[in-house]
Every structure is written in C-alpha cells, then in structure tokens.
Amino acid sequence: MTFKNEDNGHNVLNEIFGYSSFRPGQLEIIEAILTKRNVMVVMPTGAGKSLCYQVPAIYSKQKTIIISPLVALIDDQVTALSQLGVKVSKLHSGMSRDENVDQWRQFASGASNILYMSPERLMQPRMLDALQRQSIGIFVVDEAHCISKWGADFRTDYQELAQLKRLFPDAVVAAFTATADKATRADIVDKLTGGNCEVFVKSFDRPNLSLQVSPKQDFKAKLLNFLLERKGQSGIVYCLSRNETDQVYEFLKKNGFNTISYHAGKSAEHRRESQNRFMTEDAVVMVATIAFGMGIDKPDIRYVVHASMPSSVEAFYQEIGRAGRDNAPAETLMFYGLQDIVKRQRMIFDGEGSEQHKLLEYKRLEALIGYCETTSCRRLALLSYFDESVVNCGNCDNCLHPPDMQDVTNLAKLLISAVKETGQYFGVAHIIDVARGADTAKIKARSHNQIGVFGLAADQSKPVLQSIIRELIAVNALKVNLEKYGALEITDKGSRILRGSETFMAKVLSKVITSTAPTENSTVTPAILENNQMLLVELKKLRLALAKERSVPAFVIFSDKTLIQIANELPTSEEEFLSINGVGKTKLKAFYKPISDIITLFIKSTGADARTAEHIAVSDQL
Ligand code: ADP
Questions:
Q1: Ligand 1, atom nearest to 49 Cα
Q2: What is the pLDDT of residue 514?
Q3: Does the pLDDT value for residue 378 go beyond 80?
Q4: C or N: which end of the chain has fewer Cβ atoms within 10 Å?
Q5: CATH, residue 535
C-alpha cells in the first residue's frame, strides 16, 4: 500500500495532527513503511519520530503494534493521540486487569487498530498466539537501541524481539532510536530484520537549541539571573549529585520559583508526583539528577541548565535534547569549573570496568572539556563529535560574542613553574595560592614562600588564574593525577610552553557572558507581537484550565508555538483557525469556541485587528 495520488498523507497530517507540512525525512519513512519495507530510523530527540509511524498506522488502518519500554511514554502517546480523536489501545502493568482486558477487546475487535505495549508483554507466548490470529501489519520498535549490547541502555526484554521477523514474516518492522552509533545501528538492523532493512539517519543538528557555557564562579548569581529572565517558561536544571540537587532546589524555592526536585533518593511517590507536576504545570523549574528525563515527552521545555559538567558529550547531547522538542527556540547553559573536571575524573578512576574501558571514558570526558573550552563555534565542536560537519551556527555564545583572545604565555609559564617548583605534588588551590603569594599554613609548612615564583601573580584574581589552569588542562599542557589526589603535572606540551618554544593564547575572562537569548538567526517560530502579549497570557491561562479539566498536560492541548501563532494571527473564523499549525479537525471542534471568545474580547478591548498594517508587514516578511 502507498498513498493515493490525491492524498499523499497530507490529509492525515492536516486533518488529524493539524500540521501543514512534513518535516525533512518523515515522508520517505512513511512511504517506506506503507510499501512494506522494513526501516531503521536514527533521528535526534524532537525530530518527529512518532509521526513517522503514527501516520502510516492511521492512514493504512493496518493493525499496528507499537513497542515502547516505558509506561510513562506509552501513556503520553496514547493521551496525545486520543486528544486528536484517534482510537488507540494500550496494555501495561500500571492498569488493572479489567482495564487491560477491555483495551485488548477494543483492539481485537477492530475498534482501534493501534496497540501500545511493552516488549515483555508482547513476547509472552499467549500474547504472541493471540496476535498471530490478528494479522498484524506493522511492528514499531521505539527506543530500538535497547536491543543492542553495544548501545547505552541494553535491556534483556528487548533481546527477545529478535524473534518477531520469524514469527510474523508478513509484517513490516519499523525501528526508531535517537542514540545509535554505527555498531549499534548494524546490530539493530541484524537482530530485528536480518539485514533486510532501509536505514534512515537524520542529522543530529538541533539548530533551535542555543548553546552556552559559563565558568562556575558566582554560580548562584548567574543561575538566578538566567532563570529570572525566563520566569514564565519551564525548564530543567541538572545537578551532579543528590546533595547538589537539594541545595539548588532550596535556593530557587527561597527565591520564589515554582520549583520541583527529583532524584533517586526521593520516594517513588515523590518522584511520580514531581514528574506529574512538571508535565502538567506551566512555568516550572525541575531541579534533578539524571535520574529524571528518560521518557519525558514535554515538547515546550525552553531551557536545560547543567549546574555541573555532565559525564560525556553523549550524555550532554541527550540531556539538552529534551529542550525545544517543539522546534521553537530553546536554550542550553552549562556551568563548569575545575572541581567538576576533577570530580568527573575521579568517578571514572574509582569506577568499575577494565583499563581499556576507563581510557575510553577519559577520552569521552576530554571531548566534553574540549567543548567547554573551545573558543570557536560550539555546535561545530559538538557535531564533529558525531562525525557531522556544520558551518558556524550563529546561535552559540562563541558565535554571538566571539571571545577576545590574548597572549597569556607569561602567566601560563608562571603557573607551570609553580607546579614544577613545588614538585608536581599539589592541586589547583595550592598552586594558585603560591602564585598569588598567599599567607597560608600549608605554604609556610612547606617553605613555598621561598621559591622563585612565590607571589609573582599577586595582581591577578583567583578566577583569572583558575581559568588559565582550566584552559591549560583542556589543551593538555597540564594534567590532573588522580593517584596523587588531584596533583597537577606537566605534560610535554606544558614543558614546551615553559621553555618558551610555544605560546599560549586564552580567553579574556571579563568577556564571559551570562545570556544568549535566541537571535533572529535562530528563530524557528515567529516571536509574539508586542501588542499581543496580553492575549498570549490569556490563552495560556485558558490552556491550563482546559488541560486541568481533561487531566492532561498543557502541551497536549496546544504547543507554545501554536498559541503564539494564534495570538499573532487572531483567527476569527473556523477556516482561519484551521489554518493555524497544530489545529486539526478534532481540536477545532473542541477549542474553537473558548479561544475565539478570548480573541473577540481582546479585539474589542484593544481595537486590534488581524489585518493591521503592522501584522501584514510581519506576515510578508515570514
Ligand atoms: P521524537 O519522537 O523524535 O522525539 P516527537 O515525535 O515527540 O519527536 O515530535 C516532537 C514534536 O514535534 C511533537 O510536538 C510533534 O507533534 C511535533 N511534530 C512532529 N512532526 C511534525 C510536523 N511535520 N510538523 C509540525 N510539528 C511536528
């Protein structure tokens, strides 16, 4: 089966999902599934994978099984589809036996043709028997990387899915994942389809995410500034430990933020409740460890902040990937300091695993330090890690405010000398004390006030010296020896700088910036017109009320992007309302009345008109 000429899938896209066009890649994948070709799709989070399997299932009406590892993911997708008027069933352990029986009957009788479930439920012999009598057309395997031992989240229950191709030879298998390197991809293809499969890999670039890194000095003040500027928005602040999570949570609460905390030390009840609040409330800050995030499908997360450096580029990419899934501008900000590098190195050093494995982990960490310390485009640094090349992005701190570089060879030499003259036995804090000529007991006890470099950098602040040491570590001129409790050691490159055979350039520290609000270059969504801001506030209130009435998250009613378009375009007829991106027939029926009431009131009270000169000028530019 393929699309009929007059339709080509746009009817489902327009009428059910309310979107005007497919995103790059979606149509080819949908066509492949409809023409019975197995597919394996690697697309970054937020790229729109779900639509790639939901459209063929809805369009072709074939019986479709969607396998997903998490109850929360299943619930979210089923709720969202139900709100669009699509009949869909689910089976999972969070529901009563009667509910499960009822859902199964709905699917078996043909009242719905889409069934969501977990892999362990699917692979039970009774279930497989029952499904073989149902002539299943499509198996969708979501989070397919869980099938591979090479992948980051191997799950034994996924392994059994390798039997599907033998048990259901006539069905199409469509596998989807956001994280799979080459080895993992090959493994997925082999296990699920025996090699008989088309592979689609979509770029990992997420141009709507702005990238910013900030040194950790004055962390609290910087964090507060950042969040105050974004008070009406929802976001996540990731912390390194439970302790840091609790501290940041208390700090933000004291400062009047609507804040939630989440980590593995909290009770199951607290975590469920926190997750629920994050999904349903507007303008909320989630402070959490990485225990929070997998399966979080909230499209309007506007920022992800890392209070400390994450473990690797992969982890960082996955965590920031939770922001801006609606493709509207979203921001990322990572704080990092010397302590983070040492802590992360220690975690690897103390961790389990072979030397080989640890070496790999150090390399991964090095790549992340490289991202933090780069003075050129950050996106370039990030994507080159995934073997992708891009041109300078114009949407990271370095592109927006290129750092001024200066020759700091003399200061670098002085610090490296301090390391050398103290026997390569001391950590950052002591080296800086020596260089600045501090009066500490440790310096006196070791007579470090007698060495040549003592006090030669007395005119420099601690943050400046810390920054230079960080950059020396990033370029591998100094290294931290964990066996010697974090002592700094000099590498060959460091020796060359010390001898004067290499110069050393570094960022001018005073140029550190605290905000990269999205620029014109980065905007994927038109911004709200200034005169219509109040209307947007009213529309958001209405959205929250509608969401509460239906016990669904706010974004299931409408995304931010859709609300902004409504507030800018002031649709006053059903036809105009339908032309808004994100409004299909079901949502037109459900929400046209309350929304048009608010718009009419707004037009009356302000004299605004969708066809004012200003508006026409803006639409003409878009
Ligand atoms: P993924 O599963 O790849 O992480 P989703 O399927 O959750 O991403 O999609 C992310 C967001 O993008 C959702 O809000 C979805 O409705 C939206 N989306 C997907 N395809 C389109 C499209 N063609 N036009 C507009 N929005 C889309």
A1: 3
A2: 29
A3: yes
A4: C
A5: 1.10.150.80
Find the 338 Cα to ligand 1 centroid distance in Å. Answer: 38
What total number of domains does the chain contain?
4
Q: Is residue 515 part of a domain?
A: no
Which ligand 1 atom minimizes the distance to the CA of 43?
Answer: 3
Domain shared by 395 and 410, yes or no: no
Amino acid at 128: L
Q: What is the pLDDT of residues 516-540, one digit of tens each?
A: 333 333 334 457 777 778 888 899 8
Predicted confidence at residue 533, as pLDDT, reads 82
> Does one domain contain both 410 and 340?
no
- Please report which confidence band the pLDDT of residue 442 belongs to, taking 50, 70 and 90 as the band edges: very high
| The predicted structure's pLDDT at residue 534 | 84
Pocket of ligand 1 (CB under 6 A): 19, 22-23, 26, 43, 45-51, 297, 299, 325-326, 559
Of 201, 232, 247, the residue that ends a domain is 201
26 within domain boundaries: yes
Nearest CA-CA partner of 213 in 386, 382, 30:
382
Contacts of 170 (CB under 8 A, 6+ apart): 135
Q: Residue 109's pLDDT is what?
A: 96
Same structural domain for residues 395 and 412? no
Q: Find the 120 Cα to ligand 1 centroid distance in Å.
A: 27
- Nearest CA, atom 11, ligand 1: 326
Pair (393, 419) in one structural domain: no
**Which of 446, 449, 447 shows the shortest CA–CA distance to 438?**
449
Query: CB burial class (10 A; 0-12, 13-18, 19+) of residue 395?
Result: buried
Print the domain residue range for 412.
405-507
Residue 522 has what pLDDT? 33
Strands 330-336 and 301-306: parallel
Mark whether 179 and 286 lie in a shared domain: no
CB 539 within 8 A of CB 595: yes
Mutational pocket test of ligand 1: of 12, 14, 27, 50, the residue with most ligand atoms within 8 Å of the beta carbon: 50
Q: Are residues 165 and 30 in the same domain?
A: yes
Q: Token pair of 134, please?
A: 């149902």
Write down the pTM of the prediction: 0.61
- Is residue 595 assigned to a domain? yes
Mark which of 507, 539, 574 sits at the end of a domain: 507
| Ligand 1 atom closest to Cα of residue 581 | 25
Label residues 129-148 b or e (16+ Cβ within 10 Å = b).
eebeeeebbbbbbbbbbbbb
Q: The tokens of 108 are what?
A: 């078996």
Q: Name which of 108-122, 207-221, 475-489, 580-594 the model is least confident about.
A: 475-489
267 & 357 share domain: yes
For ligand 1, the distance from its centroid to the CA atom of residue 84, given in whole angstroms, is: 14
